């Protein structure tokens, strides 16, 4: 989620990622334990989800592991229903699932997501680390651990995890984008631009990456090039409020005060619209 008026897009969470399928195997001995733990995973899954589900009988964990697009296809956004306690409830149920099956990899992953939402980043990092221990090429484990390392301001560690994610999936645009954000924190502007450019090459409709690259260009005095990137971000997403704000800053720097005023006004309108 972006902060209103921020200059660079914040980290992109895992839910919106276009992820490659994650392959995992459950040994026969563990499968029985998995089936016992499944009920608790489903309870946690429902608690973490903004949708009101009438049942918890579906094998959500298997569906998610078999197709990482399942969440997006099913409109699951994992924003709890106006009650932050639902995150704690989800953590409780995922922990119950893990008590019955210590190798239940996706329960660690989702407990990590819940811990991250309530800013228990150290606990979340431990959960993601456990997924990697169970499956050394577990893409989401590296990606999400990179995110929480970023929030812990351990930027070098975050970059290491994002790099591993891109090695596992060289087409993982979100990992390149987030690595660029981490590099920006370390003042590695050239590296950040390279990462945002790579993300755009992979996904030409990646509005966040255009916005982020524009911001870096603007901070290095390349305001006209930045405006081109902001133009593209707004073309892709006409309601991208922060891209209007950033473009307004860039136009102001080149003395296009009328254009800047128009962009700031559009930004304020979009923010008001989102708040309503």
Shape call: elongated
Assembly state of the chains shown: single chain
The string of secondary-structure elements, in order, is: HHHHHHHHHHHHHH
User: How many strand segments?
Assistant: 0
Structural class: mainly alpha
Give the overall pLDDT as a whole number.
86
> Measured on Cα atoms, how large is the radius of gyration?
20 Å
Query: How helical, in percent, are the residues?
Result: 55-70%
Sheet with the most strands, sense and barrel status: none
Uncertain runs are: 1-5, 14-26
- Proportion in β-strands: under 5%
Number of helices: 14
| N-to-C CA distance | 17 Å
What does this entry look like structurally?
The chain is mainly α. The protein has a domain at 25-118. The chain is built from 14 helices and no strands. The protein has helices spanning 28-48, 60-66, 70-73, 85-100, 105-117, 121-134, 139-151, 155-168, 173-185, 189-202, 207-219, 223-236, 241-253, 257-275. Helix 1 runs antiparallel to helix 4 (85-100), helix 4 (85-100) packs antiparallel against helix 5 and helix 11 (207-219) runs parallel beside helix 13. The longest helix is centred in the N-terminal third of the chain and has 21 residues, at 28-48. The two termini are 17 Å apart. Residues 1-5 and 14-26 have low confidence and may be disordered.
């Amino acid at each position: 989620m972006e902060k209103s008026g921020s200059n660079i897009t914040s980290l992109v969470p895992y839910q919106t990622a276009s992820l490659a399928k994650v392959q995992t195997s459950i040994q026969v001995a563990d499968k029985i334990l998995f089936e016992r733990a499944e009920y608790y995973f489903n309870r946690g899954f429902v608690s973490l989800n903004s949708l009101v589900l009438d049942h918890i009988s579906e094998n959500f964990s298997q569906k998610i592991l078999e197709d990482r697009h399942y969440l997006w296809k099913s409109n699951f956004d994992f924003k709890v229903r106006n009650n932050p306690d639902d995150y704690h409830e989800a953590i409780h149920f995922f922990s119950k699932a893990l008590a019955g099956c210590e190798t239940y990899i996706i329960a660690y992953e989702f407990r990590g997501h819940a811990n991250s939402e309530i800013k228990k980043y150290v606990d979340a990092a431990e959960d993601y680390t456990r997924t990697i221990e169970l499956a050394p090429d577990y893409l989401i484990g590296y990606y999400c651990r990179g995110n929480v390392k970023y929030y812990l301001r351990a930027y070098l560690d975050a970059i290491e995890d994002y790099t591993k994610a891109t090695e596992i999936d060289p087409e993982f645009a979100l990992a390149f984008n987030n690595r660029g954000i981490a590099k920006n924190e370390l003042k590695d502007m050239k590296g950040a631009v390279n990462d945002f450019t790579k993300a755009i090459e992979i996904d030409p409709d990646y509005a966040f990456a255009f916005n982020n690259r524009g911001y870096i260009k603007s901070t290095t005095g390349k305001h006209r090039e930045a405006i081109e990137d902001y133009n593209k971000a707004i073309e892709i997403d006409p309601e991208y409020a922060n891209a209007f704000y950033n473009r307004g800053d860039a136009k102001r720097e080149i003395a296009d005060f009328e254009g800047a005023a128009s962009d700031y006004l559009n930004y304020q309108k979009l923010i008001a619209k989102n708040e309503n």
